[in-house]
Amino acid sequence: MAGWLRQCTIRVTELNGRPEGDYELFEAGGRLQYRGQFHRGRKEGLWTVWDSGGTRIAEIEYADDVRNGPVSLWHGSFYQGGRNAGQLKLDANVLDGRYDGEYRTYFASGGLRSFVVFSKGEIVSADLYDEQGEVAVSGGPVAFDQARGDVSRDLSLFATIEESIRYSLSYASRQE
Question: Which of 44, 59, 90, 120 has the CA that lies 20 to 30 A from 14?
Answer without folding.
Answer: 59
